[in-house]
Each structure stands twice: as structure tokens, then as C-alpha cells.
Amino acid sequence: MFAYQLRLAFKSLRRNPVLSTLLVAAIGLGIAVSTASVTIYHIYSSNPIPHKSDVLFHVEIDNWHPDRPFDSDHPERAPSQIAYRDAMAIMQSQIPTYQSAAFRTELMVFPDGDEQRPFREIVRMCSADFFMMFDVPFQYGDAWDDAADQAPEPVIVIDSKTNQRLFGGSNSVGRSLKIVDRYFTIVGVLAPWRPTPKHYDPTVNAFGEPEAIYMPFNFTPVFEVTNAGNTWGWSSDPIDTYEDYLQSELLWIQMWVQLDTAEQKQTYQDFLDAYVLEQKKLDRLSRPLNNRLLDVMTTLEEREVVPDSTKSQLVVSLLFLVVCSINLIGILLGKFLSRAPEIGVRRALGASRRSVFIQHLIECEVIGVLGGSLGLAFSVLILNVINRMLSNGEQLHLDLNMVGAGLLLSLVAGLIAGIYPSWRICHVAPAVYLKMQ
Amino acid sequence: MEFGPIFRALLNNRTRFWLITVEVALTLAIVVNCTSIFLDKRQSFVSPTGMDIANILVITTEPFGENFAIEDYVEDVGDSDLARLRSHPSIINATPILHIPLSGSGSSTSRKAAGSEIDTVRVAYFWVDENGIETLGVELIDGRNFNRADIEGRIDNGNDDIPRTVIVTKAFAEQIFPDGNVVGRQISNGDDENAATVIGVIDHMSNSWPSASFGDHTMLRPGMVRDSREMNYLVRTEPGTIDSLYTELEELMVSLESDRVVTVRTLSEIKLRYFKRTLMAMKIWAAVVVLMIIVTSLGIVGLTSFSVTQRTREIRTRRALGATRLAILRYFVIENWLITGIGLALGTLLTIGLNFVLAQYAEAPKIDWMLLVGGAAVLWTAGQLAALVPAMRATSVTPEIATRTV
């Protein structure tokens, strides 16, 4: 029966190809626009590390002006970065499974050979645990070890693009690269890695690329490295030397820990509170005790990484789909009712209302699915255009979920648009049309 | 006029009435809100920056030579770079600068009138020398420019005897000195020991974040920040020479000191990069508005055609009873006019509702009522034109067949 009704639906669509094309295009346009914006919203609000997002915690210490909160709109929040001296102190803890203080900087790289000129590259200062915590994939080699963190030893990890650029993509583990004034040994090469959003540091370009080079955090004082991300400060204490900079209340370090159990989390929270209470005796951290451990998704939410325009585009595009559906109702109504004489005869010959209704609804769903497929193809096109316009290099593309969502949307649109016209046509009185024949 | 019969006839055909009404209402809500967002974004892009951006080149140098560890060496390179740049015939003036205006990255701080109780106001700042004002092309409207003493006072950071001076934009000055007296007053970050004197006011200058709420709160501080990591210059060129200078300057800088990476960009290029996302969003919103109007017009064509087809017999009867073609046309036009009108009235409410929803959790400027009127006028015209096509068809229905089939 279903196959028969499908055949009827296609037959009916073929009868008036112009009108049918218009119907399919109408729904396709709505689906294209809404699928594209649902996809963008989905990508921007997605969980970049689903299997671990609730055991990774961003550490916040409320270090701000004693008289006012960091964020006056959300006074309960603490600054999302911490001071270098606090980072160094809490890194001594043995409680977390993994932990890393980290920040983004730029350092001068001197490639060997004459062809390539020195260049400034974006570097992340972090500890070996950074790679474990965020499941950073390696193509060659591995992260450095704890000894290298402590010393610090001149070792680095480079990303796949840098490996391609400097070593033609070959296994460069064991080779060395001059950075600032000394040679670093490459211990690991990352496989292509693009967490979206960039969970470990959403304060700078949450959809940008991860850093090209990773270096042990303890090289910070050695090279007198300064932060290239956001630096926040509230104190007016003078900063004249690099040592002043490190000991200042400037906030520029992102601190992440992995705490696998609730007890571990509680122990770490107690440790942080004890540390801050200790510091208060030294006349520091004079705001009320407010140490926060935020999991990945809470961090992303509080940083408000989803662009405002993405949200409004989502609302508007769904309304756009509604308007397309209303149009569809109008055209379907015309199409179906012009067929009233034929339906009158079918009803007189014994077709039940129900079967007439279902037959027309199936025709609507066929239109919906055809339009949906066309729309999905269009939305791929729209996303490609957007990808090309974005300078960030982020790749927006449909995944299987979104294809499913698009088809579901088109089925729903087909159903919503189809119910009323189908109901109208199954209620035509056969007698009038019999008389007309 | 036949408003009465038309309205009563409409009530007998409620489906079409509601479909068009709701469609028009939704369309008005979307079109007005999208246009409002579009105009808001466009405003942030086209509003003047106060600078002569068409003729400004930005030279970024990243030194890597070991000599750059020596402070005096850095100073010497800076002095010779600037002397060379300023002596170039096509260059009006040049200034050292650390952060680049319109680039999206820079330094900001908070300042208030020294001794006042008012909260501090956020302001972005640039270190420039006495050539800064001319190089940027900003207009000094009050007070004076920096002089050599201001600049040298700042180079030696340890010397606190020399008074600190700043030049601020009018927009920022109005925030911290509401009474209008600006030149000669002191500003501080709340700690009055480190206050600085405002020596001049410039009319307008966008800072590093032109689309931010404090995008025109700009402060110029005197000094030449020379850093062994980065030394940047702004260069104002004679009109029309910027393209030829582009590559020439890169070679010139490398020839003066080769142990550095030199990048030359135009300020317009930097501005475009900053606004890349804004421009993309503008294109998307514009596309939505255009698509929306097309889709709705097509919808009205479809629904009115259907109505004409359905009422063919009715029209024939009316024609047979003596109605002129014009009367038939008028009937459909007035009918459409009524439906669209009701839709637009409903749409006004929806527009405000949607604006409220968008403002709840996303960006949405307040709707300007002129925009609402404009949007309604456009939709009303589009609706009338769309209905005209099928209405013309209705006038071609001839009466004689009607008399035969009834």
C-alpha cells in the first residue's frame, strides 16, 4: 500500500513539473538556511572533549580589587586566569591526576639553513600533563617527561603544520630547532588537532588554531617570556623588572587540573582554600574566599564562546523555515483542491477519507524529503562559502547528526505544511463533483 | 467602496486570510529585525575612524639579531629608522607606535578625573611621539601637541619629577570631565600619585577595538616604546603614493638593519581584517532579508492565484451581472490591501516581540520606528505587486461562459 501511495505521489508530482519544482525549491530553501545555521550553532556550542569534559577543571582564584568583583554583571564569578606566583604555588600539589599551568606567547624561531628566514611563532608554555589531560594526539614521538618539566630540559613538541613547514612532514623526533638563543630537541610531533571550541584557552579566539610549538612551562623565567594572550590587572603596584612582572598580581595563566573522583575534587578544593587562606595572612587575595573549579562545558558557557550573531541567526532561520512552510501550505492547498473532481470520483468509488488523507500526506512528505535533500546540498554550499569567508581557518561542515537533523526538519516541515491541505481534500463531498462530470 | 462585502467574503475564506496574514506578519518581523542588525553592523564598519586610514602604512619589525639585547642598539636603530622614513619624499610623517589602531589587539586601562568620586572609565592607549598627531591624521581641537620634553620625560621611566602628559579623545574626555573643562586637568587610575595632565584633546580617533563600546575612548601617551621583540611604525604617505611605497619600504627597512622580520601593511587592510566577521554577518543578514521578501511575494502570488482559480465562477457571475474589468481588479487589489494591512499590523507586534526575544540572549539593537514604517511600506508594495499578477488574470475571465455553466 505504501509503495502504491509513493507511486501515486510521484505521479502527481510529475503531472505539473513547474509547480512541483517550486514546491521542492520552497521547502529546500528553508531547509538550507536553517540547517546551515543549526550546524553553525551546533559546532560553536559543542563539547570539544565529551569523554572527559566533566573531570577536567579550570582553576579560578578570586584575585581582584578588594572593592569590586572582576565581572560586575556576574559578581559571583572570579577571574578566569590566575597570577604566575599562584600558579607556581598550586602546581606543587600532588592531588590532581594531571595538572598544567599554561599560557600563549610568541618566540623567535631560527630554522637551520639559509633558505628560511627567522620567524616569530606562537608558542604554548605548558607542562607535560597538558597533553595527557586534553588527549592531544601525537603523530610521532610523545610528550616530554616530568624530569624535563622540572629541569627544565630544552625539549619541545611541534604541531603537524610546523613539522610540514620545517621538515617536510617527515618524522622530526630527535631533530633540533633553535628558539630564542638555544637548541631545543623535538620529542613529539602532533597529529592534526583542532579542538572546537578551543577549550583550554577560550579567552583568545575560541575558534582559532592551537599553538604551533609547545615548550616546558619552566622556561618562562629563563627566557623572560611574556604573555601574548589576555593579561588582566587591577593593582597599581609598579612593574619595573621582569621579576616584578612574575611576582605581580597580573592575571595571565590558565590553570587546568584533572580530578577523576568527587573526593579528589573535594580534596583539591580544600587544598586551594587552604592556600588562599594562607596567602590572606600575607595581605594578598583580600576578596572573599571564592575558589572555583569549572568543568569544560561550564568554562565555555561562562566565557560565552558562542557568538551572539550565531544565536540570532538560529532564531531567524527557524522562523524563515516557518514562513517557507506557510508558503507550502498555500501552494499545496491550491494544488490539492484543483484535483477535487478526481478525488470526488475516488471517494464515490469507495476510497475512505483516511486513505485519501494519508495519500496526500505522503505526497507532502515526498516533497518535504526531496526539498530536504536539495536543502542539505544547498547548506553544504552555504557552509563552504562561509568557510571561505572566515579567516580563522575553522572548518564548518555537516556531520551525520546534522544531516539527520536536516532531514528531520524537512519531514516536520512537510507534515506541518501537509496536514491542513490533506484534511481539506479528504473532506470534499463526492456528490458535487459527480454531478459536474 | 466595497469594503463591507470584501471583508465578509474574506471571513468566508479564512484559510487564505490567515495564511497571508501570518506570513506577512512573520516576514515583517524578520525583515525589520534583520535590517536593524544589518544597519547596526554597517554603522560600526563605516563610521569614521578619525584617522587618515587611506594613506597610512603600518610597518612591523620583529628583530632577532643578538645586538637587539643591547638597549642602546635598539634606540639607535629606532632613531635611524625614523630619520630615514621621515626624509623620504613621499612620506608626510612617521611615528613609532607599539600597538596598532583598528587591529583588535592593544592595551587598555581605566582612568578617571584625579580626586573625583566617579568610577573609572575604560580607555585604550597608544604610545606615540610628537609626530603622532600628524601621522595619524587626527585633529587636535584643544590644547597642544606633545613636545620633545614630554617624550624625553617618558623615556626615562625612573624619573618621576617630569610631569606626565596625555592627549585624549573628545568622547573619552566627555566621560570623565562632564563639565567640559579638559585641558590642564589631571587624570589617574584611582591612585592619584601617578596622575597625568591632559594637555590636548583630539576630535575623534578609533582605538584598537573600534566596534567595542569604548571604541572611541582613546588616549595618546608620549614616548617611544622600543622593545627588543617588536618595533612598529606608522607612516603617513602623500596621497596616491601608498601602493608604490608598499614594497619599497619593506626593502628599505631590511636594508637599514637586516636582522629582523619586516612586514608592511596598510591600515585599511588591518581594518578590513578586524571587520571580517562583521562584513560576513552583514552579507548573511542582507541575504536573509532579500530571500524573505522574495519568498513572501511568491507566496502571495501563489495564494492569490489559487483564490482567483477558486472564484472563477463567482467572477464570471459578477461580470455577467455588469461588473467592469476594473471593478474585478479593484476587488482583488483591495482585498489584498486589507489582508496585507492586517498582517502588517500584527507584524508590528511580532517585530517588537522578536526584537525582545533576540535581545534576551543575543545582539539586537532597539528597533527604530522609521525602520518599521519603511519595512511595512516595502512589504506592502511587494504584496500589492504580487497580488496584481493574479488579479490581472482575474479580469480576463469572460462572462459568457458563466451564464452557460451555472
Describe this structure as you would to a colleague.
The complex is a heterodimer of chains A (437) and B (406). Chain A has 15 helices and eleven strands. Chain A has 437 residues and is of the alpha+beta class. A six-stranded mixed beta barrel of chain A has the order 3-4-9-6-8-7. In chain A, helix 1 packs across helix 13, helix 2 (17-44) packs antiparallel against helix 11 and helix 2 (17-44) packs across helix 14 (400-426). The two termini of chain A are 28 Å apart. Chain B is α+β, with helices and mostly antiparallel strands. Chain B has helices at residues 3-11, 14-46, 71-87, 132-136, 148-155, 170-176, 242-256, 267-274, 276-310, 312-320, 325-361, 369-395, 399-405, and strands at 56-63, 91-97, 107-113, 121-128, 140-143, 165-169, 186-188, 196-202, 218-222, 231-237, 260-266. In chain B, the strands form two sheets. In chain B, strands 3-4-9-6-8-7 form a six-stranded mixed beta barrel. Chain B has a four-stranded antiparallel sheet with strand order 2-10-1-11. The chains are: A alpha+beta (437), B alpha+beta (406). At the A-B interface, helix 2, strand 3 and helix 11 of A face helix 2, helix 9 and helix 11 of B.
Report strand order across the widest sheet of chain B. Answer: 3-4-9-6-8-7
Compute the separation of the termini of chain A in Å: 28 Å
Counting helices, strands and paired strands, the structural category of chain A is alpha+beta
The low-pLDDT segments of chain B are: 155-161
* Spatial ordering of strands, largest sheet of chain A: 3-4-9-6-8-7
The gyration radius over C-alpha positions of chain B equals 32 Å
Poorly predicted residue ranges of chain A: none
How many structural domains can be distinguished in the coordinates of chain A?
2
